Amino acid sequence: MIELTRANFEEVVDQSAIVLIECWAPGCGACAQFDPIFASVAENNSSHVFARMNVMTEDKLGEVFEISHTPAIMIYRDGLLLLRKPGNFSEDALQDMVQQAEGLDMDAVRADIEASHPPNQ
Prior knowledge:
Blueprint: E1 2-3, H1 9-13, E2 18-24, H2 29-44, E3 49-54, H3 59-64, E4 72-77, E5 80-86, H4 91-103, H5 106-116
Parallel strand pairs: 1-3, 2-3
Antiparallel strand pairs: 2-4, 4-5
């Protein structure tokens, strides 16, 4: 499991892989409950990258991504942020998120992004 920091953030999320990030905070009871679920899904999906980000020590990253509730999940694929969602998810729900990210047509995702954010003319 990768500990995500400002120093390694870009390197981790810019991989041509699916990257799941658990945003957590010390003293967060829901985070403590969610951590073993995240670890179990990570163990069952070894072809993907799993990372944890402490939003207290990495508060600037937490602010950039507007993480106001923990735990929260962020999912990247091919360097693109696909999902940012707070919640204490079940193992089945988290696994479903992984499968949805796996099933995406990334060319279609990029086309949708380009269509919704046309370059300045």
